[in-house]
From TrEMBL, chains A, B:
A single GO molecular function term of this UniProt record: DNA-binding transcription factor activity
Annotated source species: Ensifer adhaerens (Sinorhizobium morelense)
Protein name: TetR family transcriptional regulator
DNA-binding region of this protein: 54-73
Keyword terms: DNA-binding, Repressor, Transcription, Transcription regulation
Amino acid sequence: MAGKRSGTQSKRPQRKSASLQSGQEPRSEPLLSLERIVATAIELLDAEGIDGLKMRRLADRLGSGAMSLYWHVGNKEEVFDLALDSVLEYRGLPEIVASQDWRGQVVHMLEDWRAVMLRHPWSASLLPRRALGPNILSRLELMSKTLSRAGVADADLNVAIWSLWNYVIGATTTRASFDLSDEDRAAGQQRLTRLSERYPTIERSRLLLDSDWDGVFRKGLDFLLDGLAPR
Amino acid sequence: MAGKRSGTQSKRPQRKSASLQSGQEPRSEPLLSLERIVATAIELLDAEGIDGLKMRRLADRLGSGAMSLYWHVGNKEEVFDLALDSVLEYRGLPEIVASQDWRGQVVHMLEDWRAVMLRHPWSASLLPRRALGPNILSRLELMSKTLSRAGVADADLNVAIWSLWNYVIGATTTRASFDLSDEDRAAGQQRLTRLSERYPTIERSRLLLDSDWDGVFRKGLDFLLDGLAPR
DNA sequence: AATTGCATCGTACAGTGTACGATGTCAACT
DNA sequence: AGTTGACATCGTACACTGTACGATGCAATT
């Protein structure tokens, strides 16, 4: 086995989860905290992409030494996990959740999801290979509840959820991978037109060039929902 | 700009594409060749995962020095690109392609796609962040052609293709991320049951535990196809 | 024999994540 | 007041990574 991933609990000092019961402030500004680390990591990821996140650079932005981070965090992978889950927190709109239009709710939840991941393109390519954090699970839970209340039978529930999940994940990761730099984009287009005679159908429909991503997402989602629960 | 990605053509020596017209054997066994490098890289990826592919280890397996690889390959990223595209080559079954059952064809192509990516789990997490190679484009082209022949209007073609693509990508990446080591699996399950009171619906449907992945994939795909082209 | 292009390799370097221990800080207890 | 000990920060060091650069061998051609 080559597995070297550490479990959920490490034997590191690792910092206790919040104060036990001595409910007093940590005096003034902690200088370093999990929240600040994660927030700054997200900034850095947004600005520099997935390969731009280095522990030293993160520490620089925080005005601390590199090794100081390891008091709050077990390793770099944990930073990725926390950043990903943090970004995916669902700030649900109560008025929509309270409505009876379950289809509208589902569409809203999924479009919100997609919007978040497109705002932070690194999250799309990270999601497939990281564990499920609490915010991700919350989104799944909320979706389950909505579908269940909408009358989807328990037997079909898992199929419905996974289908929608798959669709969103696929759509965002694909979309994110097309959000490359202009340089890459130009190179890709050049390569494609050079090979256009080998892919005539794709070329004709201009599949890769001018797809209306938002519209395509919405229409495909409608098709999927039609299949899941014909109206 | 932090972009350091190289374009399609590098100014490296890089090896000419096949022999020009002096059609003679390169004497005996080339010891090193693009094909052998890619094949060995796939072996290594299968065995050690995405982080297990190091240039030195790859060279060891090939019985060569590390730097020798760079004659055939521009950089490590190119190895990923080649391995990914190589694995995704479609060995279509003519009898199925020739049939008139377009829905069967589509299902077959997508299940084959999924099977390939589950056989090489690293490919699932790689696909979202790499460029589209010729084999991937071929698969898209074949799908386009099939759907087009099936009577899907040009206006709906892109929606249909992207929806199916999204579904497959999402399903395989999700599935692959659940194919962790037993250790991780145990830790995840433990964490989930510990938090089960916060996710009652998920817990009840056992969404994360005993989903029948193959069945779910097939059923969801049927739903999607129903929506795309009601029978 | 000399040249030329192909292919391989050894060495070296600039980064990377992080192990380890030293050091500072502050609240609580004696 | 003095001591302790948990919390938090940091400097240094190391193993390991991708790969730039130049030396070296080798076959075919001149």
